[in-house]
Write a structure and sequence with these properties.
By secondary structure, the protein is mainly alpha-helical. Helix content is 68%, strand content 0%. The radius of gyration is 29 Å and the shape is elongated.
Length: 90
Amino acid sequence: MQALLSGKLSLYVLLLFPVLLVSAFLLQRLVKSMRDELDMAKYELERGPVEEAPEAPPENERLPGYMMLTEADLKEAYEKVLREMTETGE
């Protein structure tokens, strides 16, 4: 190993190693992005297109500490649970 680093090839070895390292990281990133695209295409084929998330309600309608829950949503859920409990007789 010492003969390799002390000879004429030492400069080439020192230049080649970082180039190989950078190319390996680049290749890894490209393969990961291709895999992500293939996974998304497979998901869309199996389940259909991805739906957009609904817009958040205005801040004055949101309950404190929640990003999407409003007083009307909470009341609706409460009434649904109450209705289901009265139907089952509990």
